[in-house]
Amino acid sequence: MSQTLADMQQILDEADCLCPEAEVQAAITRMARAITEKLGDRNPVLFCVMNGGLIFTGQLLTQLHFPLQAEYLHASRYRHETSGGRLEWKVEPNFDLRGRSVLILDDILDEGTTLLGISDWCAAQGAREVLTAVLVEKDHARKARPGLKGDFTGLVIEDRFLFGYGMDYKGYWRNAPGIYAVKGL
Ligand SMILES: O=P(O)(O)OC[C@H]1O[C@H](OP(=O)(O)OP(=O)(O)O)[C@H](O)[C@@H]1O
Ligand SMILES: Nc1nc2[nH]cnc2c(=O)[nH]1
């Protein structure tokens, strides 16, 4: 096994599981009900924020039983690091947002800079309303705006560096079937 693979296996073996898969799935089901209640008759367009939003979006979408359009965008600011920098757009959506209800789907609201930047961009494109849904909110007071929260939140989790369920550690373990914290971080 290469050193990278051995290191990554050790990361998972030594990590703390903060939320097992069944609890994550229950949270996604609760979110699906709340989103349906709010947006079920608004013909919304949903944007998965790649890459981290992939698994959450996939598991949420099939629980939304109303007409919607599903799209993606790609914006990133961590680049395999454990602290964030400037938000970089990798793929801007090519989609007419004028007058639309928009729901942004992402794995985590940490400082919230990513979701604020994306929400502002959607509003500037003429969206009628922009809502956000995050699987995880990180519990700390360093938000980009005091008290910043998603409109729909699955789980509130302690202030450690998390991976699994879409969140990566150095590009790995987005596929981990639960939410884990790296040992010592
Ligand atoms: O609330 P913030 O502090 O802005 O952090 C949250 C963002 O960080 C992660 O993305 P990242 O930039 O790591 O890109 P990724 O989606 O490719 O993992 C995550 O997917 C969120 O989009
Ligand atoms: N993987 C991962 N990405 C993040 N982006 C912001 N916070 C986190 C985190 O705790 N884990």
TrEMBL record:
GO molecular function, one term: guanine phosphoribosyltransferase activity
CDD domains to which the protein is assigned, alphabetical: PRTases_typeI
Keyword Transmembrane annotated: no
Pfam families attached to this UniProt entry: Pribosyltran
Record's catalysed reaction(s): IMP + diphosphate = hypoxanthine + 5-phospho-alpha-D-ribose 1-diphosphate; GMP + diphosphate = guanine + 5-phospho-alpha-D-ribose 1-diphosphate
Highest taxon of source: Bacteria
A single GO cellular-component term on record: cytosol
GO terms, biological process: GMP salvage; guanine salvage; hypoxanthine metabolic process; IMP salvage
Phosphoribosyltransferase domain span: 25-169
Keyword set, alphabetical order: Glycosyltransferase, Transferase
UniProt-listed Enzyme Commission number(s): 2.4.2.8
Protein name: Hypoxanthine-guanine phosphoribosyltransferase
